Give the backbone structure.
Amino acid sequence: MKRALLIILFVLLADQALKVWVKLSFYYDESVPVFGDWGFLHFIENRGMAFGMEFGGEAGKLTLSLLRIVAVIGIGYALRRMIHQRVHGLQVMSVALVLAGALGNIIDSTVYGLIFSASTPFQKAVFMPAEGGYAALFHGAVVDMFHFPIWRGRLPEWVPGWGGEYIEFFQPVFNIADAAITVGIALFVVAQRFAPVEHTAQAAVEPPGPSGADVTGPGPKGQA
């Protein structure tokens, strides 16, 4: 439990600290190179799902925020059961990462619209503006900032369907919470290969049942 809580707290603190700094320090759509031409801090806001995927309109935004809250409650309950059942540590770590990432984005979509003014290409956001925030409760936008266009260029003409088209890899802009969710899901898949081994080993050392009978031993009259 302590390890899971530490993971959740670390991810949340790092995610929110970076988001608040970017929100207050960057103009909207401002981009600062940090790793040459393939790594940038690029401030945008996402009203939809992870990695910039949209989920239509104000009603869609409210629905998405509420679904996130329900999902976090379910993930938290599952994590608690996993800890009590002493499942593989890698599984617990993976679910803790997913929970932390989901919580990080929920904070943005729930309260950022209330506590920040709008960010524009010409004006930086203000914390707790006198005129009120830029959106209602549950209608805030998630702050994204990591952009890694590792490769940009045109595909060869011989590539079926996309020949000659300009592409950029990796195009989506994301945040620490998105990364935690992605890593958590990947770890959970990997952990499935270890959990059966651990359960089998545990079953092998379990003591016999209450009767102490050995099912492979002789029968009631000493017959094999």
Notes: Residues 197-205, 211-217, 219-224 have pLDDT under 50 and may be disordered.
